[in-house]
Amino acid sequence: MDTQKLELLCHAGPITALAICGQKIIWGCGSEISVFDVTLKKLETRRQILVGASVHGIKIGPSDGISHLVCVYGAKQAIVVCIQPVEQNNDLIILSDVMHLSDWIWDVKWLNDQGDTGSIAVALAHNSVVRWNWKSKIISCHRECSEKCILYCAHFIGQTWENLVLAAGTVFNQIVLWPVASSSPAVDGPVEVMHTFSGHQGVIFSIKYHPDLQRLCSVSDDRSIHMWQLTFPHGNLLDPTPEDWRSVKYDLILLLYGHSARVWDVALAATYFASVGEDATCCIWSYSGNVLHKFKGHKGRSIWGLAIAEDEQFVLTAGGDGSVRMWEVHGEKTKKTLQRVISVPQNTELIQDDFPRIVEMLNFDLVLIMMNSGNLYSYSVSNQQFVLVLSDNVFKSYSVVSPCPDKTTVALGSMSGVVRIIQLSETQHEETKSAEMNLFPGKVLALAWLDSCHLLASGPDGVCLLLKMDTVRGKERDDFTLCIKKQYQLSLPPSKHRWITAACSVPSSDKTCSFSHSFIVCGDKDGSVHLYGMADGSDCNSEPELKPLNSSVKVHGKAGVTFVCYRDGVVYTAGRDGFYREWKVLAGYLSQLHGNKIIKGFEWIDRLEWYNNDLLVYGFFSSLFVVWSVTCNQQLMSVSCGGGHRSWGCCHDNETLRFIYLKAGKVYMVDSGHETKQTLVQPALHGNKICEAKIMRIMSHGTDRPVHLVCTASEDTTVNIGVFVYVDNLYIWRPISTLKGHLSSVRALALSSHHAVQQYTFSNKGDSDDLQFHRTHLNPSAGRDGHFILFTGGGRAEINAWKLSIVIEDSSTFQNLKELNHTDVNCFTADLSCDVKQSVYENIHSSHNDRLHNGIIPNGSSEDCSVQEPDSHLHRKSSHTESFTPPNSVLSDTSDQIVCNYQHLSRYFLGESRHKRFHWKSQKLSLDPETRVMSLDASCVAVLWNGFHDKVADVNKAPFPGALKYLSRVHIVSSAGSDGIFRVFAFDEDSRTFASLAETTYHQGCVLKVMHYVHYFESKHISLAMSTSTNGNVVFWQLDALVNQLASTVLSKRLPESHSNCDQRQTLIKEGMPNNVEMKSEKFADVGDEKCDTDGDDDKDDTDDDDADALFKTNLKIESDWKPLSSLKAHQSGVNSLHAFQISVSQFLLASGGDDNAVTVSLLEISDLALKELAKVSKEDAHAAQVTGVQLISSALLVSVSIDQRVCLWGIDYLPQNHMQLQLVACRYISVADVSSMSAYLYQNSVYLCIGGEGLCLYKLTDKESLHG
């Protein structure tokens, strides 16, 4: 195999260089550059430019008006390319060979010398400069400075070689200026320094000079920005000579601090300048030293790239999160914000100290002001006129005001229990309509509109009444009156603060229901969320008070629920705990999907609003009122109002926010545009290093370019679901969903599919003795949906469980998109052609073709017979929906919709449990800050259980469909802990509980890696778990006893007693038990959190203890003295990666990579109770650093990847006398630094490799000979 068969399809990662060339944005990521056309809003091209180096700089050169010359450099390499219009056949042309220099390149400068159009000055890291003619491919001149030191940055000033001056940032925290073309007779000697600029307390990272303003600016490790004003003796010189530079005077005019971390780069414009830093912030400064804007949108870590558009209207930033963002800048003018006081008329006939008590916004123009005297005023902002709407002593001193969603009606509540609804007239000449009803013996505590005609009123003792506002038509066309009708009475559960604070209606999925709102979701002042069901045709008179169908007690803490709404099938709630949560109503049950926290310190969320495909969060950050964009991750508005304990209102119109609030008895109104206007050019990947990446699924959309669904876990505490999709002749990375909820970094991923239940059987082929594996799908995925249970683990000893469903929506691009029947490399094998009665080496060595074609291949397609699961198993299992189309984006593929529905199921902490017998206030959870989950693997019990193995033909007969349904929703999860404990858990989807099955300290050191492996025999299979640690051993554990014990418990608890064939039921239960093991009835310990929320504050009442679905309360036994099946010495130190591959009925290959830079392959023979190593080969110098990923593609081909940024293909040769050897077949440099993991996936005739670390890349490996023989 040659290197051409290992093809890089896409690379996403930190962007280290950025430039603007007319209407094109050019950025460097790894060794590639990408060209994006702003006008066409599309990525035009992407191409690998450098060899074994990352792009660190892009310098725009001469232009003929159509094409532009560009010099791209990084490390010790430089190359010249030509950027052409998109109409050309090739819009990126490489004009020169890669120039390899002897030192690191800090800056380049296109020279404008007459008669020389091909020269570029190059500044090197040891304070020297070379003149490179890229056309003739020669270095014509070399200059060195007398200050011989290492540079951290450099910047050229001047246009020609004779006038060129280098401003160099030295390791001594100084800037030295020296002329490149010296007039000294010793032209080849060192050049003396002209000027030295001092003042920084740290190394200097960037220097820029503005020739028109004659200002020099530098940024440093000390977080400061220094700006010097230069004065030339002969006035303003655009291209001063070295003599002019020797006589220049300079003064430090600005010393600025605006970043909270190191400042990386600075760019100077005519009216402002910009700086970016390690705090992922872009600051826009005026030349007077004021901060005009602070742009915060990048995830997590540094902004590396900075560029200003030619018209200076936009600033572009590119960060370590892989995103490119365009920010609108307004120069010296800050974003317009107007604040004024509204003078409210007072009722002089009553108390002369009358004051505003409540303010609300009915719509963007109309403000409602309720006075303490009981007067209600409406104020038109556009006309600046007050109208007295109501004057009634009933509302004196106390009132509740609730604007209607129709923006013309308002509801009022009084101390005496009166509710009045007022419909305001559109003009002063029209009559105001109103209706009232006395509802309660006490005061009205709260009012909440469900829609434009239904209102929920809350009174004393937890009584809530659902009211309907109706109109009664008169004889005239425009004559009508308002009336109020009672429809339902609801009762809140007993609590300290027993009244509603927010509510919404949820439509019924039953189309025959006559009432339009079949469910009502309420949030109360006690922080709980309740679901009520409405009976068809009932009312207050015919039905007793309604009790909640289910309640989530104190889910938003003790400060109360502030917001409830229903949108696109999902219920959203928010509270003063800093979370907004998403719920789903299914079968009369309100199931929480997950919770989302905005930023640290933003604890008071009061309202959510969807605006232009963006989710806006209104709330209070300390004493500030804040409007936050969730999708753009930025603040849109902030007003210092004194905090949230006041009456206020806010409306949004045409990107203008109007905020009105009370403070010290005065009404203030603030109008503000969005503080930042951000356009997302390239979406973000992660805010920190990727710890693990897995290819979840590969799908086809009718072409030969499949869609790759990938899951990534990162140190930024998030998990991303995204796709590599082919758009406009390029593979691009697009995120779909971000899963949040981990307290610390996420290090490990494990997938367990509902539809991974497979079965292998054997049959003789013709008259030969060869055996062939056949795979039958018992439970294929339905339609085009991909369903997964995802387990994530990381710091703080935390494991989370998620339910994912990937849906392909019809569009012009994905009209024919369907999920294919494919096989993960982890369980892929090909046709076997060897006699199991003889040694595998004799057969493999005798035939080269056989050597390349040992394994198992799938037989069948996605249309094979299957047992479909009923929809009832989705009870309490719903999902939040996200797609990868961002708001304010210039991405061209927004019509492509790949939707991820996800739900957080449970959270578990190693070694800890929350005992539900205690009251929620006394529950304590001590987290171990040191223990980390290093690795996870998970498998469905239905995959590991032997009960289905020899009954494939009868799976459609009872009781197998029921058994399959129940066993497919229970999973075995193995975890490697940094505390030296290898643990095995069971997870039940229905009860959302974790339970410990076994744990052992056998390794006596940090456990690094775990893996599940199923080996298939003729009449059964063996399930193994493999674990590795820092001592270099691979330890094998047999899972069959645990699996059988768990399967027996599941079937005995859930398989119906009234099953039509009780004998078969008992048979299944007995077959689930391990040999010679009796059923135990001990209390099962360490039960994990049930239905736990992502914030770890799950407050459930004690009624869940009687849940019939709680499997893990009896009949299970923890294995504390678990003994391994075998142990194998593979490496001298830690083992970071494992992969196994079955090559015959009794033999399999095991590959591993370790901290000793070695790759090891062992041939193992397995039986029921024994494991024997037949042969072993170890390549000790396989890599120059730790090996972090290995994959066996076939019995003859191995792929490994390492921190040395190389992916290597190894041929496995089988020699006589049970010997093996590894031969390097191909080696490729990868742009992903600090590689942490590799995932492989077989699709058609190719294997796709996904490599994660400081970035993410996708490779395609094609070799029919090695894959198929």
Automatic annotation (TrEMBL):
Q: Which Gene3D superfamilies match?
A: YVTN repeat-like/Quinoprotein amine dehydrogenase (2.130.10.10)
UniProt-listed SUPFAM superfamilies: WD40 repeat-like
Q: Any coiled-coil ranges, and where? A: none
Biased segments, Basic and acidic residues type: 1084-1094
Q: Which family does it belong to?
A: Belongs to the WD repeat WDR6 family.
Q: What is the lineage of its organism?
A: Eukaryota, Metazoa, Spiralia, Lophotrochozoa, Mollusca
Gene source species: Candidula unifasciata
Q: Where is this region: Disordered?
A: 851-890, 1084-1106
Q: Name one GO biological process term.
A: tRNA methylation
Q: What are the WD repeat spans here? A: 197-230, 303-337
* GO cellular component terms listed in the entry, alphabetical order: cytoplasm
* Database matches in InterPro entries: tRNA_Anticodon_Mtase-Reg, WD40/YVTN_repeat-like_dom_sf, WD40_repeat_CS, WD40_repeat_dom_sf, WD40_rpt
- UniProt keyword annotations, A-Z: Cytoplasm, Repeat, tRNA processing, WD repeat
Q: What is this protein called?
A: tRNA (34-2'-O)-methyltransferase regulator WDR6
Acidic residues: compositionally biased ranges = 1095-1106
